[in-house]
Write a structure and sequence with these properties.
The complex is a heteropentamer of chains A (382), B (237), C (313), D (260) and E (317).
Chain B (H helix, E strand, L loop, with lengths): L1 E10 L2 E11 L4 E5 L6 H8 L5 E8 L2 E2 L5 H6 L2 E4 L11 H8 L8 H14 L1 H5 L10 H13 L5 E5 L7 H16 L3 E6 L2 H7 L2 E6 L2 E7 H6 L2 H7 L3
Parallel strand pairs in B: 3-8, 3-9, 6-7, 7-8
Antiparallel strand pairs in B: 1-2, 1-4, 4-5, 9-10
Helix pairs in contact in B: 3-6
Chain D lengths: L1 E12 L2 E12 L3 E5 L6 H8 L7 E6 L4 E2 L5 H7 L1 E3 L12 H8 L8 H6 L2 H19 L18 H14 L4 E5 L7 H16 L3 E5 L3 H7 L2 E6 L2 E6 L1 H6 L1 H14 L1
Parallel strand pairs in D: 3-8, 3-9, 6-7, 7-8
Antiparallel strand pairs in D: 1-2, 1-4, 4-5, 9-10
Helix pairs in contact in D: 3-5, 3-6, 5-6
Chain E lengths: L7 H16 L3 H26 L8 H14 L10 H20 L7 H21 L13 E2 L5 E2 L2 E2 L3 H23 L2 H11 L1 H6 L4 H27 L1 E2 L6 H14 L4 H17 L7 H15 L16
Antiparallel strand pairs in E: 1-4, 2-3
Helix pairs in contact in E: 1-6, 2-6, 2-9, 2-10, 2-11, 3-4, 3-5, 3-9, 4-9, 6-9, 7-9, 10-11
Classes of the chains: A alpha/beta (382), B alpha/beta (237), C mainly alpha (313), D alpha/beta (260), E mainly alpha (317).
């Protein structure tokens, strides 16, 4: 019996401790407005995730310099989703439970965006994704879910059109890495290319592998172009390893490769002349964007594709809060969706359609030149 | 030379040795008798510091050695021919022997070579098989290897745990002849045996261990005469 | 089919290069396992950290005097600090994260979880200090692209030759060390029978620490070579390389040094052949199915001895 | 009636012949002693009978020749009615004393997963009976084991571990019980107690084949004795006959003693 | 070890768990508690294989994934089947148990770490199949998973809030705990533990180790089937990324940190390893660093786990 009581005591002590832990983040008076940045801060995608979080922080700082919003200071709540669905749900619930949070910039992978949007929808909390491209993200018709990036089924077909019509490709090798975004784009490229009468051949590499030579060697020598639906570092490796297998073809890639450092520089010149599609026109030509780039680089280092998108998303949310004029999540959610022709740093006026996608569907193509990109073409996909 | 005083040893909560005291003097062959699970091997392990005594003291050449690490005790000049031989099965005969000489890496080169010669002389079979893996030897050869390995350390005190186990009678005699020869060359020996008659026939003195306690100790001759052995092993009255 | 045959020699070269890498990293798993019967899950991170040390040396050299870098002296200069650093790290892990456990007679799974904790810790420590962004090895400054030769229809770059040679030399050196030296004999003795080794006068703890040092140093060297060959490194690279190398070690028979090399080579070759003849999406499935088949037929791996009987949960 | 009979039984380990052309017979109701120096093949014989090692050649017949044991899986052999103890004490150390015995009852109980999960009355009833039976087996050894029933087995003393091994083996309701050095590590009082216990077990109708080094025990309990050396039977008969056999004397005491 | 029955501390614990949501400051912590129950169920399943039967399984996540996807196939728009929860769950449990036997069978001859790597291989293969089986016929939805999974509805009441899910998961945890306790004190449980302690002796005691091991795999997998169904219905979507190798490791760590074989310990391990990363959430980028360090420290100071089955007690002489 003596032992039972000791176990009992331990059980009680544990329960009390748990209650204390749970009670710790007690409701505080909302003296701030919080914006959540939900991204992988750790794990394989940490680099992209941290860039998003940094861009949101930069936006918040700039607003704070101008006096914040609703007369309150803006804080950024970083929520680590590790790029993992389970973890993202927990992170989203913590965000949802924090009454000071009025909006979220969430997600660079759809496997987190989708479950997270379900969680945030229950509390009417708006989210704008800077990187979740899967059609399912917005096709489910949630009122709170928006994105400032291209959908797979816009970017993919545009890539196929560019390859077939502009580069006169007959045989296209289509690569992806077996993860959501890249695979989704690759599927769309394949579909559209077939429609256009070209012959796509699919290849899968495994993200995390670094030696793709064996796969590249199986690519027929008569392919005219490679559509590499890959993240920038992997694309740089492919570009570098192509000469090792005697292939000399151009690559096309989606927005994940709009990375001067991780793609262009990392390829050590091998990417020269390759193409990358992106949602927005040349940032270098937009004054607002140059200011952002300068500020970002001064603070956090080189900027790539996600930074500007996340910065834009944060600004749209803050602008909507300002417009609503009160800390009302549902109102903010509706105001974001109602955004019309928002002019930020992306050079195109942003309007959300009724699903939360950026209206318009224009995809811009760039060619790698030197250490950066030059715009070569724009394609509109319906 | 070696002196155990009131040594208690436990495995977990189980007492294995209970107040064991014994002494081995320079030049002797001392024999430790007892049945299975009487604590003989534990005595060996306690001397070597493989298990720590929970009470009592172990002294070697006047210094207290209980509490020292096994390898430190080994370097002081004690070596063991373990029960069931425990040679390194995946190493060659030569390598096993050179492991035996591990503590003597700083010895003059010729000396170790000399020791190899000594082992080859004692056990010509081993020389023939010096490049064979230990695990491929027969039981008797493995026993020779285990003895040879222990000798390579040039121990002042040699502990032997059941050197006759599993050997054909003819080999048992041979092994005990060798033990006597080693002793004649100046090595003190503590031997644990079940084969009491043979062991006592070469020993100076003997201890009988039963359930972790020393129950008898006397000179070998008297032990043989008391017929303890005949009683214990053949059930004679 | 003719196409496939035409690229086969090339594929074998790629498989060999990859397999060498796996084998080198697998050695670390196997050495630690051989002596402690413990899967050192942090070994992948040690490999990754080796790659980072090598990168820093190269970066500093480039800063000091751009150009005129010749692999003949730069490569040893990268390898040495990487091996020393990772070796020391391995010893530190053994001392603080594993030894307290095995000394206190934990179940074999305790050290496994501790190793996983160490792996998570090291990965994030590197991310936080070196940044989450990948780093690029300036390999082309050391090994120009046109340093390559044609052998039997395959184009082999100088880097691959150097990599295979260095890895081969290291394995050969390790083999000699383990087979021919007193230290090697004491390692094998400790692996076989820790207690008897101590009775022979071997300082068991020191031998275990040294084994960690050597296994980790080889992992670190693997990191440098892989960095050069892959040209990109990041804090996460230890995960998949570690998993593959571990698989290679088990395939060959874990605890067996030659088995690790063999397992690595087979895994590398199987992967490159799998993508040649099959849907590349199933490359890793093929590798794991092979592993399972091998183990079902030979439950202790290709060259393994039945140490598994001792390896109880 | 021959409960157990081996014929030409042989076992090789690599190059080593551990048991050679062995013929042995144990009649129902007997206590047969198996003696011989360490390494003479006694334990290997047990492993062959219980199916843990496959025989290289020969036959093992059980139940008056009705069942051939060579080739059967160990659990089938146990189910037929052969149980054993181990020389080096293979108790389930982290299980309680009672649970060790309950493991022995495994082949005499039937409950399937579903009835256990549902807690059907049959399964509860069976478990209650099993626990009662296990308790009964522990009480065979007076108050040596029963008061310690809920302790982990590793906390037991040497002698009690030996006793628990026997209780665990009896739980399988064997007709033939194989005891591997049951008296090792026991003091004289404990040994006397053990001899009494073994005789009592025989009275319950269990035939016993026992390996033992303590000749007092062998003489005290065995109806017949067989002596092994190097895997072959060198003598068989009453204890006195075997003890006087020159081959046995030589095996135990060396050549000189054998000749003496 | 407490004999079966209803120990008093279990009643206390149950009571605390029942009223716990009232003490939770917000929905997030109720969600964390729900997740604790979910993972405790999974950990209990793995505990049967690793803790009871002593078979080191590094690919447990395969069963978790198989359970999730099976549930999804039966109760979502993916194949247009919208079977009711109370029909789906038993089917999933049975099928997942079957998958346990299928995957367990080839591993029977393997011991220790060789078993570990083969199960790891099965885990990886499962993940790769989930990713790739969207073509030629779309079965798994590929890397972008399947969305629009039905929430569980019992007798017309559809679960929606975290509190609902908490009570559902808690009930399941209670049942799996009860099942674990019953099995632990049954002839099958004793057989498992005997195999863990000494497989050879277990065989000599008349245990058919082949059958016993497969039973362990099947029961362990069936718990994962429950967990998988819950995850799918709670998350409303499933992705291959839910079922990475790290998840196997995570669940294994719960079992070991808690104390292998000890039911309360396993639940405590799950509670600790689910809540620690949440407690560390405010550390943001340093979160996993702290978590890794904690794992090491925990193991160094409690090598046998928080509550281990190996209690130090005095001997009897």
């Amino acid at each position: 019996m003596a032992r039972m009581t000791s176990i009992e005591r331990r059980v009680w002590a544990g329960a009390v401790a748990l209650a204390l832990v749970a009670a710790a983040p007690a409701v505080e008076a909302q003296q701030v407005v919080k914006i959540a940045a939900g991204v992988p801060l750790t794990g394989q995608l940490a680099k992209q995730g941290q860039e998003v979080a940094n861009a949101v922080k930069l936006a918040a700082e700039e607003w704070n310099k101008k006096g914040g919003v609703l007369g309150k200071k803006i804080e950024v709540l970083e929520a680590d989703d590790q790029g993992n669905p389970q973890v993202s749900v927990a992170a989203a619930e913590k965000v949802a439970a924090d009454a000071a949070v009025l909006g979220a910039v969430w997600g660079i992978t759809s496997v987190t965006c989708i479950p997270v949007s379900d969680v945030l929808d229950r509390v009417n909390l708006v989210l704008i994704s800077p990187g979740c491209t899967n059609p399912k993200v917005t096709d489910r018709g949630l009122k709170n879910t928006n994105r400032v990036c291209a959908r797979d089924d816009a970017q993919g077909p545009a890539g196929a059109i560019f390859a077939v019509q502009d580069l006169k490709a007959k045989k296209i090798a289509v690569f992806d890495d077996g993860t959501t975004g890249p695979k989704g784009v690759a599927d769309e490229v394949e579909k559209k290319a077939k429609e256009l009468g070209a012959q796509p051949i699919r290849y899968v590499i495994r993200s995390g592998d670094k030696d793709f030579r064996a796969i590249l060697a199986t690519v027929p020598k008569d392919v005219s172009v490679i559509y590499a639906s890959l993240w920038a570092p992997d694309a740089a490796l492919v570009a570098k390893q192509l000469p090792d297998v005697g292939l000399n073809v151009r690559m096309i890639g989606p927005d994940g490769q709009f990375e001067p450092v991780d793609y262009v520089q990392a390829s050590g010149g091998a990417a020269e002349g390759n193409y990358v599609s992106f949602l927005v026109p040349d940032l270098k030509k937009i004054a607002a964007a140059t200011a952002f780039t300068k500020a970002f680089e001064a603070k956090y280092g080189p900027v790539s594709s996600y930074g500007p998108l996340a910065y834009e998303a944060a600004n749209i949310i803050l602008e909507s809060i300002k417009k609503v004029g009160k800390a009302d999540r549902a109102a903010v959610r509706d105001a974001v969706r109602a955004t019309k022709s928002y002019k930020g740093i992306l050079g195109v006026p942003i309007s959300f359609d009724d699903k939360g996608d950026v209206a318009g569907g224009v995809i811009y193509f760039y060619r790698v030149k030197g250490s950066g990109f030059e715009q070569v073409k724009q394609i509109t996909v319906k | 030379m070696l002196k155990l005083t009131d040594v208690d040893t436990h495995y977990g909560p189980l007492p294995v040795l209970k107040s064991v005291s014994l002494e081995v003097r320079v030049g002797e062959i001392v024999c430790l008798l007892g049945g299975n699970a009487s604590g003989k091997s534990t005595t060996m392990k306690t001397i070597l510091g493989v298990v720590r005594p929970t009470a009592g003291r172990v002294e070697f050449e006047g210094d207290r050695i209980d509490g020292l690490a096994t390898e430190v005790i080994a370097r002081r000049g004690i070596s063991l021919v373990p029960e069931a031989r425990r040679i390194f099965a995946r190493m060659t005969v030569w390598e096993n022997l050179s492991m035996g000489a591990f503590t003597r890496q700083k010895a003059p080169a010729g000396e170790v070579a000399q020791d190899f010669e000594r082992v080859w002389t004692l056990f010509p079979r081993l020389k023939e098989r010096q490049h064979q893996l230990g695990g491929t030897l027969s039981g008797g050869e493995q026993q020779m290897l285990a003895i040879g390995r222990a000798l390579m350390a040039r121990p002042r005190l040699l502990l032997m745990d059941e050197p006759s186990m599993g050997l054909a009678p003819v080999l048992v005699d041979q092994v005990f002849d060798i033990i006597r020869a080693i002793n004649g060359q100046g090595t003190t020996i503590l031997v644990v045996e079940q084969n009491a008659p043979v062991a006592l026939s070469i020993a100076t003195r003997g201890y009988v261990l039963q359930n972790g306690r020393i129950v008898i100790h006397d000179t070998a001759r008297i032990l043989l005469a008391t017929d303890y052995v005949r009683r214990a092993y053949l059930g004679e009255d | 089919m003719a196409d496939v045959l035409a690229i086969l020699p090339q594929q074998l070269v790629f498989g060999l290069a990859l397999g060498t890498v796996y084998g080198l990293v697998a050695l670390g798993y196997t050495m630690v396992y051989g002596i402690l019967f413990m899967i050192n899950f942090a070994h992948g991170e040690i490999f990754m950290i080796g790659a980072y040390v090598g990168w820093w040396v190269l970066a500093l050299l480039l800063q000091a005097q751009a150009g005129a870098l010749h692999p003949a002296w730069v490569l040893p200069l990268m390898l040495l600090p990487a091996m020393l650093f990772t070796g020391a790290l391995g010893v530190g892990l053994e001392r603080f994260a594993y030894r307290p456990l095995y000394l206190r007679g934990a179940t074999r799974l305790g050290p496994l979880i501790s190793a996983i904790g160490a792996s998570i810790f090291l990965q994030n420590a590197v991310m936080l200090t070196q940044g989450a962004r990948m780093k690029v090895y300036m390999t082309s400054l050391l090994f120009p692209r046109d340093w390559r030769i044609q052998i039997a229809g395959a184009s082999v770059s100088a880097l691959v030759i150097v990599m295979v040679a260095v890895a081969g030399l290291m394995m050969w050196g390790l083999h000699l060390l383990v087979q021919r030296t007193t230290l090697g004999r004491s390692i094998r003795a400790v692996a076989e029978d820790r207690e008897m080794a101590a009775i022979m006068g071997v300082n068991v703890r020191r031998v275990i620490a040294l084994t960690f040092f050597m296994g980790s140093a080889l992992g670190g060297a693997g990191g440098v070579l892989v960095g050069l060959y892959y040209t990109q490194i990041d804090f996460f690279m230890g995960y998949s390389a570690g998993l593959k190398a571990f698989t290679a070690a088990v395939l060959g028979g874990i605890g067996n040094i030659r088995g690790a090399m063999l397992g690595g080579l087979i895994l590398g070759l199987v992967e490159s052949l799998a993508v040649t003849f099959m849907n590349p999406a199933y490359k890793d499935v093929v590798a794991f199915v092979l592993l399972i088949l091998v183990l079902v037929i030979r439950p202790t791996g290709l060259l393994g001895e039945s140490v598994a009987a001792r390896a109880k949960v | 009636m021959a409960l157990l009979e081996t014929e030409g039984l042989t076992k090789d380990f690599g190059g080593l012949r551990a048991v050679q052309d062995l013929a042995l017979r144990v009649d129902e109701g007997e206590i047969v002693g198996l003696i011989g120096p360490n390494g003479s093949g006694k334990t290997t014989l047990f492993n062959l009978i219980t199916g843990l090692h496959p025989a290289t050649a020969g036959r093992i017949r059980f139940d008056d020749g009705r069942r051939e044991l060579v080739g059967l899986a160990p659990h089938r052999i146990t189910a037929l009615g052969i149980a054993r103890t181990f020389q080096n004490q293979r108790l389930f150390n982290h299980m309680t004393v009672l649970e060790n015995v309950l493991v022995g009852l495994h082949c005499r109980t039937r409950s399937g997963i579903a009835s256990i999960l549902l807690g059907t009355r049959r399964s509860l009833e069976e478990r209650r009976r099993a626990e009662a039976r296990a308790g009964g087996l522990l009480s065979l050894f007076g108050d040596r084991l029963l008061p310690r029933a809920s302790r982990p087995a590793w906390t037991l003393s040497y002698a009690n571990r030996r006793r628990l091994e026997i209780a665990r083996a009896l739980a399988a309701e064997p007709r033939l019980l194989l005891l591997d050095e049951p008296a090792a590590g026991m003091n004289p009082t404990e040994t006397r107690e053990l001899m009494r216990d073994i005789k009592r077990i025989r009275e319950r109708g269990v035939t016993i084949l026992v390996i033992e080094h303590d000749m007092g025990v062998v003489r005290g309990i065995c109806d017949r004795v067989a002596a092994l050396d190097h895997g072959t039977k060198i003598a068989e008969g009453s204890f006195e006959e075997v003890r006087r056999s020159p081959a046995v004397l030589e095996a135990y005491l060396g050549r000189q003693a054998g000749r003496a | 070890m407490a004999q079966p029955g209803f120990p008093r501390w279990a009643a206390v614990l149950g009571l605390v768990a029942l009223v716990a949501p009232l003490a939770a400051p917000n929905d997030y912590w109720i969600g964390v508690m729900a997740r604790i129950c979910l993972y405790a169920t999974l950990a209990l399943g793995l505990n049967i294989v690793v803790g009871f039967a002593g078979l080191l399984d590094l690919g447990y996540v395969a069963f978790f994934g198989i359970g999730s996807y099976l549930y999804t196939f039966l109760a979502s728009a993916h194949f247009g089947l919208h079977l009711p929860f109370l029909v789906t769950l038993p089917i999933v449990i049975l099928l997942t148990a079957g998958s346990g036997i299928l995957i367990g069978a080839p591993t029977l001859r393997l011991a220790g770490d060789y078993l570990a790597i083969v199960t790891l291989g099965f885990g990886e293969i499962t993940y790769l199949l989930l990713i790739n089986l969207d073509r030629p016929v779309n079965i798994t939805g590929g890397p972008s998973g399947i969305v629009g999974i039905d929430p569980p509805a019992v007798a017309g009441f559809a679960l929606s809030t975290n509190t609902h899910y908490y009570y559902l998961f808690l009930a399941a945890l209670g049942l799996t705990l009860l099942a674990s306790a019953r099995l632990r004190h049954s002839r099958i449980g004793w057989a498992w533990q005997a195999i863990r302690e000494d497989e050879l002796a277990a065989r000599a005691m008349g245990i058919n180790t082949t059958v016993a091991k497969l039973q362990a795999f099947a029961i362990g997998a069936s718990f994962a089937g429950i967990g998988g169904s819950f995850l799918a219905s709670w998350q409303r979507s499933v992705f291959p990324e839910n079922f990475l190798f790290t998840e196997s490791i995570n669940i294994l760590a719960m079992v070991i940190v808690g104390g292998m074989g000890n039911l309360l310990g396993v639940v405590a391990g799950a509670a600790l390893l689910v809540s620690l990363p949440e407690v560390f959430r405010d550390l943001q980028r340093y979160r996993l660093l702290a978590f890794g360090l904690m794992l090491m420290v925990l193991m160094v100071f409690r090598p046998q786990g928080l509550l281990s089955f190996e209690r130090k007690e005095s001997s009897d002489d």
